[in-house]
Specification:
Blueprint: E1 6-7, E2 16-17, H1 20-30, H2 35-42, H3 46-59, H4 69-76
Antiparallel strand pairs: 1-2
Length: about 80
């Protein structure tokens, strides 16, 4: 798929693929924007952003018991947008 990032290895046994919208949301999260701000930037609802965040967490096999787990994951993978 064009404009997608594939993750493997430390994100689970299967290769994970994020949609272009999920990638955009990850980039905004990396810039510390909250769901409301991201929704405004992408002209979508806050609920849609939260659904995408949920999908990202599932695709990256991130522990959902920690609310900050996605931010920790981003901090530990600083080079994912250098493609």
């Amino acid at each position: 798929m064009k404009n997608s990032i594939h993750f493997s290895g430390d994100t689970g046994s299967n290769v994970k693929e994020l949609s272009p919208t999920e990638i955009k949301i990850l980039k905004y999260l990396d810039k510390n924007l909250n769901s409301t701000q991201i929704a405004e930037e992408l002209f979508i609802s806050k609920r849609t952003v939260e659904k995408h965040r949920s999908n990202i967490i599932k695709k990256l096999d991130i522990d959902t018991t920690n609310q900050n787990a996605l931010f920790v994951w981003l901090k530990n993978h600083p080079k994912i947008f250098n493609t």
